[in-house]
Design goal:
- With 348 residues, the protein is an alpha/beta fold.
- It is 26% helix and 23% strand.
- The chain contains twelve helices and 15 strands.
- Strands 3, 4, 5, 6, 7, 14 and 15 form a seven-stranded mixed beta sheet that branches. A six-stranded parallel beta sheet has the order 10-9-8-11-12-13, with helices on both faces. It has a two-stranded antiparallel ribbon with strand order 1-2.
- α5 crosses α6.
- The protein binds zinc ion (2 copies).
- One zinc ion binds next to α2.
- Belongs to the zinc-containing alcohol dehydrogenase family. DOIA dehydrogenase subfamily.
- Pathway: Metabolic intermediate biosynthesis; 2-deoxystreptamine biosynthesis; 2-deoxystreptamine from D-glucose 6-phosphate: step 3/4.
Length: 348
């Protein structure tokens, strides 16, 4: 099969032939129809993820068709249209037993712990625990983002964030996950303040229903106060959808009393833990929450909203490229992450 392979961290990847994957007993091999390009892929390529060993094939936001199934797989057959959460759970640890597969103690992540979906085929583990059916009416490009940015945003806003109608929700960082969060919060009846340094990102956020926008480049120390002013005292719920010390602290500073901060953006461990204004956490009784993907069994309410057209992940897709163009696009994520989402179609 053809795959995007990098042999060294930070050095432009190649596209070459590698052996086809074979399914494990409880796994499947999926023919990749669409796979999203994510900032996490860029972090992996740069060497920021300790799980990655070289040579490596990135890619974790995928949708496609089951090509082959392992002998112990019960629920899936070749030809099934599927997607998968970026956290693939083991199905047997204490977290899995509690229904918290998104924090599985023995998780695998395609494109990180093993070769990913910037390829014609990808192997996925524990298919009966992790695969999610993609209905016919959803395109693969639309479904590709569900496993990472969209499901992550859904759990952050609805699950961990417990958004309520009429609440103010601040979203710091309007890339793929941030714009997804804007769309989801608006669909839940919240009033959204979008925060980003990019005019294009804020324009998209406004198009997805944000009630107010804050240009973060005018607030180099963080846009917390600007959000508190706009919302008449602070947001009820605030997300750091980027993952940086500035946006993390700004998100916490955005909150009113008893507000909820959800950390969604991954903070690279190499930079150390960010300074969080904990005095506000005690004084205002704030909640600090994390959100890490979403378990496959939690997908149905999100899928219902997507099928009904209430949520439109397809609107986040701003470009579609072939596998051959993926190495350059991956490298460009660091300097020009852009607004919206790029989808790679390996079959074309
Ligand atoms: Zn991702
Ligand atoms: Zn587990």
């Amino acid at each position: 099969m053809r795959a995007v392979v990098f042999e060294e961290f930070g050095k432009i990847a190649g596209v070459r032939d590698v052996p086809d994957p074979v399914p494990s007993d409880q796994g499947v091999v999926v023919r990749v129809e669409a796979t999203g390009l994510c900032r996490s892929d860029w972090h992996g390529w740069m060497g920021h993820d300790p799980d990655i060993t070289l040579p490596h094939v990135p890619g974790h936001e995928l949708a496609g068709v089951v090509e082959a199934v392992g002998s112990a797989v019960v629920n899936w057959r070749p030809g099934d249209r599927v997607t998968v959460p970026f956290v693939c759970a083991c199905g047997r640890c204490s977290a899995c037993a509690a229904g918290a597969q998104q924090v599985c103690e023995r998780q695998t992540q395609p494109g990180f712990t093993h070769w990913g979906s910037f390829a014609q085929y990808v192997a996925l583990e524990q298919a009966d625990v992790n695969l999610v059916a993609v209905p016919e009416e959803l395109s693969f490009a639309m479904a590709a983002g569900l496993g990472c940015r969209f499901a992550t945003a859904f759990r952050a806003v609805v699950g961990q964030g417990r958004v309520g109608p009429g609440e103010w929700v601040a979203v710091h960082g309007c890339g793929g996950v941030g714009l997804s969060a804007v769309m989801i919060a608006v669909a839940c009846g919240a009033r959204v303040v979008a925060v980003d340094v990019s005019a294009r990102a804020l324009e998209l956020a406004r198009a997805f229903g944000a009630a107010a926008c804050v240009d973060a480049s005018a607030h180099p120390g963080g846009a917390g106060e600007a959000v508190r002013e706009l919302t008449g005292g602070g947001a009820h719920l605030s997300l750091d959808a980027l993952g940086s010390p500035v946006t993390c602290a700004a998100s916490v500073r955005s909150l009113r009393w008893q507000g909820r901060h959800v950390q969604v953006g991954l903070l690279p461990t190499a930079a150390g833990d960010p300074a969080v204004p904990m005095s506000r956490v005690t004084g205002l009784e704030l909640e600090i929450l994390g959100s890490h993907g979403m378990a496959a069994h939690d997908y149905p309410p999100m899928m219902d909203m997507v099928r009904a057209g209430v949520l439109r992940p397809d609107l986040l897709v701003t470009s579609t490229i072939a596998l051959e163009a993926a190495p350059a696009a991956l490298a460009a994520m660091g300097t020009a992450p852009g607004a919206g989402v790029t989808i790679i179609e390996p079959a074309k």
